[in-house]
Amino acid sequence: MNTRILVGFLWKTFWLGGLAGLIASFFVKPEQYLNYLQPFDGMEILGLILFFLVLGLTFAMVSLTGFFAYLFVHRMGLNLFKGYWSTVQIALIIFILFDIIYFPYQSANNVALYWFILLAAAILLIGWIVAKLKSKETNKKAFVPTLFFMVVFTTVEWVPGLMVDGTDYAWLMVVPLLVSNTYQILNLHRLNFQEKTPVQEAKQKKKK
């Protein structure tokens, strides 16, 4: 296994999630930035940027942990359920989507049910799009596992954000999770973990 490629993959995922969290903060928490624009306070704004960047990096780390857990679960599912693993994944997707709607609605105060339905639909839509891209780049069998990862694992990783009062930090968490998970699942098959010999590296440089 080429450690350099693996580290690069993890490093890009880490920083993409962090930047996604920072960009999301401009839309979710604009009032916090505006408070220090009039009058302008550069140090406070820098502090906010670093805070939301670190927050995004933290959620990116959660995504990385979840991705490796998914790889283990997927392999175990194939060995345990064999030909029925796709059916089991679809059942778990439906169960998780129901959970996104039912349990937050039961604990929420004065929040309409359709908001939770829209939330579940948005997670499903994003997962569906990513799964279609993955299946086009690899094969049709990759559709269900990718959808399973994007819906089930993103939701499980998002549970702490759903338990927080208010929606601001829930959004600040789900954005880096979705960006990191999307990057990981779409780029895993592009990685070449085979070490290149000096001769192969020399040939590749000549082609360039």
Automatic annotation (TrEMBL):
Pfam families: KbaA (PF14089)
Residues annotated as transmembrane: 9-28, 48-72, 84-105, 111-131, 143-163, 169-186
The entry's keywords: Membrane, Transmembrane, Transmembrane helix
Keyword match Transmembrane helix: yes
InterPro entries found in the cross-reference section: KinB-signalling_activ (IPR024164)
Key word Transferase present: no
One GO BP annotation of this record: positive regulation of sporulation resulting in formation of a cellular spore
Protein name: Activation of the KinB signalling pathway of sporulation
Protein source organism: Oceanobacillus iheyensis (strain DSM 14371 / CIP 107618 / JCM 11309 / KCTC 3954 / HTE831)
